[in-house]
Amino acid sequence: MKKTSLLFMTVLFLSSFLITTNISAQERQGPPPNGEHKGPPGGGHNPEQTESLKQMKGYKIGDTAAYFKLKNIDGTMFSLSDIKNAKGYIVVFTCNECPFAKMYEDRLIALHTEYAPKGYAVVAINPNVSASNEKESFAAMQQRAKEKQFPFVYLADTKKEVFPMFGALRTPHVFLLDNAMKVQYIGTIDDNARSAKDVKVKYVEEAIASLENGKKPNPNFTKAIGCPVKAD
Amino acid sequence: MRIGFLFSVLLIPFYFGMINSNITTTVVTSFDKNKTIPVYDFEELEPLLYTNDDKVYIVNFWAMWCAPCVKELPVIQEYKKNNPNVEVLLVSLDFAEDIETKLIPFLDNKGITSKVVLLDDPDANNWIDKIDPTWSGSIPFTIVFDKNNRSFHERAFNTIQDLENVLIQTTKNN
Lengths: 232, 174
Known about the structure:
A: alpha+beta; Glutaredoxin; 9 strands; B: Glutaredoxin; 2 domains; 6 helices; antioxidant activity (chain B); Thioredoxin domain-containing protein (chain B); redox-active center (chain B); Thioredoxin_ResA/DsbE_sf (chain B)
């Protein structure tokens, strides 16, 4: 009798644990923890990540950039040779949707406004332009440029040929060329993407000042977090 | 004798029940409603990139705004599920003010249960090189390491097998 009740109690005791386990197992099923996510969220992005820095070809400091022709948002074909009396070019790979690119839009406008009259125009190129992504389409570029009243050209790298030539990996990514098309500075615009007022070092402006003084920019290469350039 | 046998048989499901229960508890509580995501600068993050223990670590730099990163998260999540001994740390480069309103709901929605910290350090040109001089700053970026070995990956892992191979390669000299 005693043994039976002991067994009974044991069974009851152990069953309670099994019930608990089952309940938590059920809860865990709620949001599928490992669901296959078909396609990325956030509106039709269809990116393919480029390979690493080491595998990525592109211009190094001192290389001479080749001329290229890309379609500007006004519908005309644009080449750097269209800028007369240039002392240099602030070539920047940027796009519509990247939060980091957006944080720099106003600073790019300010750069162009100040430096274009001095011979250094901003030339913005969207390497992520995509007909299948409504946020990075040519029409969306036109729309964004209109909203922000970009004073500079905003070119579509539709065939994805120009950004690999430069070796642009992220947006925004600046390549400062001198008047002989030599790459003099590669990197970020300044040292604080989040907050323009907390910027301590304005890398691009310092690089231009160096060129103006006949010196090599120092630093001539900086890094930053940015959105991946999409090679799709 | 018979009772003793029955008792041990009954203990078997109990034992497994406990194991499952423990795993389940970890999974459920690691991202409950009270979850807070610590915000670190690089100095605070850096110790988490090294270890003295015997585990293998995967540290993945990502952000909600980075589409390839978002696509990769389920691969890392699934790998962690199959390899509970591997420690996963997701370093979000999202904005600190978005933690409550966007990041936590995003992680909940995706069922991401790994440890997440947010790196908020504007001087990226400084800390990117301290992590890996060959890293351009593009994400996703993943470090696989144990106490003796380390490898860096400036790309997305598209399959679990891909990640598995990298872990094997990285730790094969142990």
